[in-house]
Amino acid sequence: MAKAIMIQGTASNTGKSLLTAALCRIFWQDGLRAAPFKAQNMALNSFITADGFEIGRAQAMQAEAAGIPPDVRMNPVLLKPSSDVGSQVIVNGVARGHYTAREYWAQKKALIPAVRQAYESLAAEYDVIVIEGAGSPAEINLKQDDFVNMGMARIANAPVLLVGDIDRGGVFAALYGTVMLLEEAERARIRGLIVNKFRGDPEILKPGLGQLEALTGKPVAGVVPWTPLDLDEEDSLSDTLRQDGGREPLCVAVVRLPRLSNFTDFAALGHVPGVGVRYAARPQELMNADLIILPGTKSTLSDLKWLRESGMEAAILKRHAAGAPVFGVCGGYQMLGETISDPEGAEGGGEMRGLGLLPVDTVFRPEKTTVQAAGALQTVAGALAPLSGMAVQGYEIHMGETVRRPGARPLVTLRRGEMEIEDGCQAENAYGTYLHGVFDGEGVAPRLAETLAEKRGVTLAAAPVSEAQYKQTQYDKLADTVRASLDMALVYRILEENA
Question: Which of 24, 251, 330, 425 is catalytic?
Answer without folding.
Answer: 330
